[in-house]
Amino acid sequence: MPPHIPSPTTIHSAATKALLPPLTLIVATTPISNPAAPPSSSSTPRLGIGNAGTLPWPRIKSDMRFFARVTTRSPPRIFPSSLQQQQGAAATEEEEGNVMNAVIMGRKTYDSLPAKFRPLPRRVNVVISRDTTGAVRRRVEGEWRDARRREIEMEKEKSATSGAATSTTEDPEAEEEDPAILVSSSLPAALHALQHTFPSRSRNGRRSLGNIFIIGGGEIYASALLDPNVSLGRAMRIIMTDLRRRPADDDAQKKGVLVASELEHAVDAFECDTFFPIGYEELENRREWRRVGEEEVAREWVGEEVWGEWKADGEVVTRILGFERV
Ligand SMILES: NC(=O)c1ccc[n+]([C@@H]2O[C@H](COP(=O)([O-])OP(=O)(O)OC[C@H]3O[C@@H](n4cnc5c(N)ncnc54)[C@H](OP(=O)(O)O)[C@@H]3O)[C@@H](O)[C@H]2O)c1
C-alpha cells in the first residue's frame, strides 16, 4: 500500500495553523450539579456560564477589569516561538502600536453586552451568526459607526479643552472608515476572515492582528472545543475565572483567609441555563489538557498579575485557572 500522502489542502491548513496565534478561550464559570447524574454518583458538576441571556452572577468588577485588560492589551503576543523566529526580531514599538486583538463571540453574547460597550472598544469584534439576510452585519456595523462617532466627539471635546491637537480629529469621519468589525457565518470562517483581513505583522502603518480571544457564549465555546476544523493542530488555551458564592460565615475571610477546601466543593451557587461544553473531568485529563500555573499564565499569557488563590469581590469569590490543550 502506498504511504498516506496528505492532500495540498491538508498540508496548507496544517502549515497555516502552525503559524497562527493560539486561540484563547476566556470564560467565567461556576460549578452546577448535574441533574442527569444519579444522586449517589461521583459525576463531576457542569460548568455554568449564563442564565436567561445574561451572566448568572452580579457584576464582578475585578473580573470585568481583568477581562477588559487581557483582551485589549496587545502583546506579550501569544505566539508560537517558531513564528517569531521566522518573522525575525520582535516587533518594533511602532508596529506594536498598530496591533489589535480580536474578540470572537456568538451573536447572542454580542447582544448581551450593554449597548454602550458594544462593540467592545479597541478590539476587532467578530460576531458569528447564521443570518444570511445581512441584517446582523448592518446592525453591528451601524453600532460600530455610532460608537466611533461618540469616540471622535469625545476626542474633539478633549482636545478643545486642552488646546492640544489629537490624531483622531484629523481622521476621516466614521462613515469613511472600514469598521473594525467582522460578521462571519461560522468560527472557521471567522478565523479565515481574520487571517486574510489582517497581516500577521504591521507594515506601513497598517493594523495587524494580535491575539485571538473567544469570549463566548456556550455555542461558540462548543465550536472552538469540539469542531475539529477549528481545534485540530492548533494551540488552544483557556483562561477561566472560577467563581463561587462568598460563604455566609465570613469569619475566616475577615481574617483574610478563605476556606479553600469548602469553596473547592461548593456547587449550585447561581442558576444557570447555559454551560461550558466541557467540565472538570475533561480538563483534568492530562492527556488532553495541562493545568498551567498562575505564574506562567501571568508572565507568558496575559502579562499581568493573576490570582490563583480565592479572592473575595462583593458577593462572590474567584480565582483564575489556566489550561492548555496538550
Ligand atoms: N460566563 C462567561 O464567561 C460568558 C461569556 C459569554 C457569554 N456568556 C453567556 O452565555 C449566554 C449566551 O450563550 P449562547 O450559547 O446562548 O449563545 P452564543 O454562543 O453567544 O450565540 C449563539 C448564536 O451564535 C450564532 N451561532 C452559534 N453557532 C453557530 C454556528 N456554528 N454557525 C453560525 N452561527 C452560529 C447564532 O446566531 P444567530 O442566531 O444570529 O444565527 C446563535 O444563535 C448568555 O447567557 C451570556 O451571558 C457567558
UniProtKB/TrEMBL annotation:
Cellular component annotations (GO), alphabetically ordered: mitochondrion
Positions in coiled-coil regions: none
Low complexity: bias regions: 34-45, 160-169
Pathway: Cofactor biosynthesis; tetrahydrofolate biosynthesis; 5,6,7,8-tetrahydrofolate from 7,8-dihydrofolate: step 1/1
Biased composition (Acidic residues): 170-179
Enzyme Commission numbers on file: 1.5.1.3
InterPro entries cross-referenced by the UniProt entry: DHFR, DHFR-like_dom_sf, DHFR_CS, DHFR_dom
One MF term in the entry's GO annotations: NADP binding
Protein name per Swiss-Prot or TrEMBL: Dihydrofolate reductase
Source organism: Polytolypa hystricis (strain UAMH7299)
